[in-house]
Amino acid sequence: MTSLGPMFFAGLALLPAAGWAQDREDTAPQGENVDFQEPSVQDQAQTQTTQAPAASNEAAVEAPKPKPRAARSKGHRCRAWARPEYRQMVRRWQKVPAIPGPRYLDGFRDLTIVSVNLGERIRVLLFKADGSLDPQGMAQVERIFRDKDSDAVHVLNPRLVKLLYKLADHFKARQITLISGYREPVEAEGGGNHGKGKAADIMIPGVSLAGLAWAARKLGHVGVGFYPTSGFVHLDVRDGPSYFWVDRSGPGQSSCLVRVMAGQGMVADRKWKPEADEPEPRKDRKGDLLGATATGPVAMPKTGSE
Question: Are residues 257 and 169 part of one domain?
């Protein structure tokens, strides 16, 4: 596990004491159904310049706490605003990091995860040659997902980890940036899916938030929240029907969650099969597994290290 230097978190001391929007649970919030079309290239470019949230200075950033829920009424207007320093920070997140691309072992790539709140980075192999999750790799991921206040580590839902891998593989991502993982439940607020190890707030450098949300909505039986102003996409796994929403409120503001694309969620759920969650080993043009151990030793990073 690697601690990130001060350059990665430059300027974070200017952050406001902000709060994240609470993730949506199984009961539908008050809101309205709206049509939401796949964003154009221009829309995605605008999204990248208007999204926003945190990281840290030389230590780790003070992670924002969940926002209070706000029932949306006809007179409620969403204030999609964030401080300039906050928006600038998210623009820095969008820059593709100068780190090596993914390396493969027996067809499965490694995964780099950076925790904004903890100021830590791991590079880990998640899957064995037979496609099963590696316990050592899972332990490293659960460690970097830990609660930033209490340092509590919680078992993660294996399906969540598999879907994060699938998204990284789909976008050929050099890393996943973790905004919020496990949050230890507070009795007065409830833990939501973050408190059950079933949710993550993420972004992928070089990939628009709109594009990331669009891909996540196709996974089936998931909750996907698009936070263009706060600067992340929420992903959770669930047994029930999918639920998609957009919340354009800024950090520290009351949420103004609106459900979107209910029809697409139903289609994705109908198409979903358990095997769709499993990772697909990658092959070269000759049909051989990338990084196949049968072809000789392959230089790979140790699990959990840079």
Answer: no
Q: Taking all residues of the chain, what is their mean pLDDT, rounded to a whole number?
A: 79
Q: Is residue 104 one of the residues assigned to a domain?
A: yes
pLDDT at 150 over 50: yes
Q: Are residues 259 and 134 in the same domain?
A: no
pLDDT at 298: 47
CB distance 269 to 244 below 8 Å: no
Separation of alpha carbons 213 and 236, rounded Å = 12
Q: Decide if 86 is inside a domain.
A: no
| 235: its two tokens | 């992903």
The residue among 150, 161, 142 whose CA lies nearest residue 65 is 150
pLDDT band per the 50, 70, 90 thresholds, residue 254:
confident
91-125 confidence digits (pLDDT tens): 888 889 888 899 999 999 999 999 998 999 999 99
Assign 3-state DSSP to the chain and report helix, strand, coil percentages, each to 5.
25, 20, 55
What secondary structure letter does DSSP report for 122? E
Q: How many domains does the chain have?
A: 2
* Residue 106 and residue 225 share a domain: no
CA distance 224 to 246: 9
For 197, list phi and psi in degrees, rounded to 5: 70, 30
Residues 136 and 261 placed together within one structural domain of the fold: no
Would you place residue 34 in the very low, low, confident or very high pLDDT band (cuts 50, 70, 90)? Answer: very low
Give the range of the structural domain holding residue 272, as residue numbers without chain letter.
Answer: 214-278
Determine if the pTM surpasses 0.85.
no
